[in-house]
Amino acid sequence: MATLARRIKQVSKLQLRSSELICVRYRSNSRWSKNDQPTGSSVGNTLSREVRKSCAWQFYSTLAQSVEERIVVPQMGDSITEGTLEKFLKFPGDKIQVDEVVALIETDKVTLDVRSTNSGQIRELKVSEGESVVVGQEIMSYVPCLVDDIVKKPRPESNADDDDHVNISVVVPTMGDSVSEGVIVALSSKPGKHVKKDELIAQIETDKVTIDVRSPDDGLFVKYTVQEGEAVCAGDMIAQILPESGISEVQIKGEVSSESSSSISVPSTSTLKSSQSESRGESRVKMSRLRMRVSERLKSAQNTYAMLTTFNEIDMTNVINMRKRYKDQFQAKYGDKLGFMSTFVAASARALREEKSVNAVIENDEIVFKNFVDISVAVSSPKGLVVPVLRSADKMTFAQIEFEISRYAKKANDGTLSIDEMTGGTFTISNGGTFGSLSGTPIINPPQSAILGMHSIVHRPICIGPQNLIVARPMMNVALTYDHRLIDGREAVSFLRIIKKNVEDPLRMLTEL
Fold it and tell me: Any idea where the Lipoyl-binding domain is (predicted)?
């Protein structure tokens, strides 16, 4: 803050020099010639009141430009250097607080928040939504709060010839002696709409009364600068209107369309035709960065690995009975539901300890054996499947596994999973049974060497006991896809049989037998 104050002081001294006043605009946009510049103490006597106001405005404006700060793309992880600017949450004129989220960046693994480093007011957006950005790139600028407090002085009024293209600001009216702020509860206009003087623009709710905000003049509605639910104070600008006298085809295109094109819907010829008759057609949606990255990795896995899949079936009777018996007590004690995933994670961790090649990877001409068991669990999110990692899964209890899976599921749904939480797994489990899958061959998640696919539980007739009695049992098909370059068939089959043995008799894991 001290550095900022010094910069303001330097700019102030620079702007107050009379030799710098040549930039002041006087009504008809004429400029003083070099010889006509007022000097020294004659400045105050020479300039009219209007010109002095204009000079002050120029000073404050230049001051803001001189001390504006940048917001840049933050570090996104060791292996990620670029992403896509998915969405701006703040726009020019919006106020921001320290550490407030101002934009979202989508990478091939996760959506990242871009946060402000200081409080102030957004000045300019440097990139567009959907544009690729790299670490350290400037995406927007803002005026810190110390300067923002100065720059809030109103721009001087000028004649119609000079400002016939300037938008009218719609501001929050005085709300009463004891009321200082309210909340926007309704926005009743839209960009591109012709509004009349005193037409309702918005409604503000205070702790005492609801206040109508009306248009100060006839004109074309340009945009809102606030959102419903936002707190505002008396004098805050909430919208802009292009005055009736300034409306022309050029200005409508330049001032309304450029700022609000995303909000104005103009029916196209194809849209009108499709509404008249049901014609066959197609729609195109750009792939998200996450989807593109998933596609690249899956194709790379197919091209790189010698993938082979082995199958087995598991009798889920004992697991289901255990869950029925203890699920209420489990949830009462730990706060999480007892599901099937904890059983399969624990069984897989045991198998990974016994069949070490499944927990290994190929790097160049070497086989790297992992001395830890970090299991990735596929979780559904609004943007697709993500794979957060359970660290040291072989040392976790059922309660710890269920807690972590529940926590990851919530974060995946909210889009708040971090990159660290989704990297470093040594093995993956994907439960296609939640979507009704009966069987399938999962694709390995690089750089891992194997993946387990779980499927639906279906009652099927099987033979049990020494007398081969035919009974209906709840059965699940499981599939292990593995890299045959590293894992032999015997090891893969043995790995799957270890999982089968432990899931069919879960007391083995609980008693560590």
Answer: 68-143, 167-242
Residue 98 and residue 111 in contact, taking contact as beta carbons nearer than 8 Å: no
Rounded to an integer, the average pLDDT of 488-511 is 94
CA nearest to 28, candidates 161, 155, 157, 156: 161
Contacts 24+ apart (CB under 8 A), 3-10: 4/67, 4/144, 4/146, 4/147, 5/146, 7/66, 7/67, 8/63, 8/67, 8/146, 8/147, 8/150
Q: Where are the domains of the chain?
A: 1-67, 68-148, 290-510
Pair type for strands 237-243 and 194-195:
unpaired
Rounded Cα distance, 502 and 495, in Å: 11
> Can you give the length of the chain in residues?
513
The domain made up of 290-510 has a fold known as: Chloramphenicol Acetyltransferase (3.30.559)
- Cβ(244)–Cβ(263) under 8 Å? no
Given 1.10.3720.10, 3.40.640.10, 2.40.50.100, 1.10.1660.10, which CATH number is that of 68-148? 2.40.50.100
Rounded Cα distance, 27 and 60, in Å: 19
pLDDT of residue 65: 54
User: Could you tell me the CA-to-CA distances from 88 to 124, 482, 510 in Å, in that order?
Assistant: 12, 42, 50
Active-site residue flag, 113: no
Distance (Å, rounded) from C-alpha 406 to C-alpha 429?
A: 15
Per DSSP bridges, beta strands 194-195 and 101-106 are: unpaired
Q: Of 148, 165, 217, 484, which residue is the catalytic one?
A: 484
Q: What are phi and psi of 169, to 5 degrees?
A: -90, 130
pLDDT at residue 49 is higher than 70: no
Query: Parallel, antiparallel, or unpaired for β 210-214 and 200-205?
Result: antiparallel
DSSP label at 56?
H
Q: Annotated catalytic, 484?
A: yes
- 219 phi-psi bin (left φ>0, alpha ψ -120 to 50, beta other): left
Interatomic CA distance for residues 476 and 155, integer angstroms: 72
Active-site residue identified among 149, 328, 420, 488: 488
> Tell me: the pLDDT tens digits for 446-460?
999 999 999 999 999
